[in-house]
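Hi R.,

As promised on Friday, here is the backbone we talked about, encoded as structure tokens. Could you run it through your design pipeline when you get a chance and send me back a sequence?
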């Protein structure tokens, strides 16, 4: 049984789950994609393997038309072989010390995904810890940005539950500590 922690804020359940996002039974899961939507390692690779080859085909259709997918934006595709009906793709920032607008781009990733979920009338969404794997974003800073963005923008959507799937115990513990802080602290 995976570790979980949750709070309710402004009628939305915010849920942290230590586990595999590909098993999420939600309307959409978020893929921490690369700018070529080509699959890869970490969460991106796991989602592509679980969804099947049609997910790659859907991403490549976009790339043929636009050449690359910019960081901080969001794109929705079907979920194919996943329990989730949709995959929302977003490209997070690569950590370069925090001096290259990484925080703004990371917040934009979460905001764009929430807006796209709302546009498609989704009620539940599952996020990974965007940019915290091979892109190297420090866990606590990423958790604060993510939670602040979700607390600010989640209530403006029709979402009822926002889940964050964290693969490692360290990531789960870090995000739990941030989520347990008073919302007023997170929303500086």
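Update: got your reply. Pasting your designed sequence below so it's all in one thread:
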């Amino acid at each position: 049984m995976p570790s979980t922690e949750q709070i309710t804020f402004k009628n939305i359940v915010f849920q942290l789950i230590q586990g595999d996002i590909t098993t999420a039974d939600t309307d959409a899961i978020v893929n921490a994609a690369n700018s070529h939507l080509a699959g890869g390692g970490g969460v991106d690779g796991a989602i592509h393997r679980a969804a099947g080859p049609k997910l790659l085909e859907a991403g490549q259709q976009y790339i043929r038309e636009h050449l690359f997918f910019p960081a901080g934006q969001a794109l929705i595709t079907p979920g194919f072989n996943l329990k989730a009906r949709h995959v929302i793709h977003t490209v997070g920032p690569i950590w370069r010390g925090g001096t290259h607008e990484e925080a703004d781009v990371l917040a934009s990733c979460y905001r764009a995904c929430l807006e796209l979920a709302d546009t498609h009338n989704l009620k539940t969404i599952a996020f990974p810890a965007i940019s915290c794997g091979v892109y190297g974003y420090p866990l606590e800073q990423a958790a604060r940005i993510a939670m602040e963005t979700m607390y600010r923008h989640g209530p403006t959507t029709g979402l009822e539950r926002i889940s964050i799937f964290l693969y490692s115990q360290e990531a789960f513990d870090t995000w739990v500590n941030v989520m347990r802080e008073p919302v007023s602290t997170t929303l500086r």
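One thing I noticed while checking it: The helical segments are 42-51, 53-66, 102-119, 139-153, 169-180, 183-186.

Thanks again,
M.
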